[in-house]
Amino acid sequence: MTGPRRYRDVRTATLTAAPEVVWRAVLDQVEVLGRPSWYVRLIGCRDRRAAGPRPLAAGSVVPGFRVTTADPPAELVLDGVHRFSVYTLTFRVVPTDAGTRLEAHTDAVFPGFLGAIYRLLVIDSRLHKLATRSIATRIRRRASSLDGSRP
């Protein structure tokens, strides 16, 4: 085996809401990312409890992630570590003529034999793609509910 394999993925969604509304929806959804908490404990996440400033800012913690960059309403960068992976999840909120493009960038490495097994179970099985699609869908729904003035 030749060292850890890197995984990179980008999930995008187009929303009709304004960037500020999408930003709020991203923050709301990131707050619940570490659920269920038993999973965060099972895989040995470094960050297990919510802490730090709210709304989320650099230094905030949600279970499974630490906020390293918060540049409202443009970019939120979350870093995480657990016993099988080191990862970054970046949300970019990009204004467009029609509203906003939401981008969810994943960058992860899976060191060692157990990391390779975890990658097989979570990444190669496409479970991660389903999870990020679900996050984007929840952000879209939340943005729509926050943006009562738009259809």
* End-to-end CA span: 52 Å
Note poorly predicted spans. Answer: none
**Helical residues, percent:** 25-40%
Helix-strand string: EHHEEEEEHH
Mean pLDDT: 92
Structural class of the helices, strands and pairings? alpha+beta
- Report the principal-axis shape: globular
Content of β-strand: 25-35%
Most strands sheet: 6 strands, antiparallel
Entry summary:
With 151 residues, the protein is of the alpha+beta class.
Describe this structure as you would to a colleague.
This protein has four helices and six strands. The protein is α+β, with helices and mostly antiparallel strands and 151 residues long. The chain has helices spanning 19-30, 37-42, 112-122, 127-146, and strands spanning 5-15, 61-62, 65-71, 75-82, 85-96, 99-110. The longest helix is centred in the last third of the chain and has 20 residues, at 127-146. The radius of gyration is 16 Å and the shape is globular. Strands 1-6-5-4-3-2 form a six-stranded antiparallel sheet.
Question: How is the secondary structure organized here?
Answer:
Blueprint: E1 5-15, H1 19-30, H2 37-42, E2 61-62, E3 65-71, E4 75-82, E5 85-96, E6 99-110, H3 112-122, H4 127-146
Antiparallel strand pairs: 1-6, 2-3, 3-4, 4-5, 5-6
Helix pairs in contact: 1-4
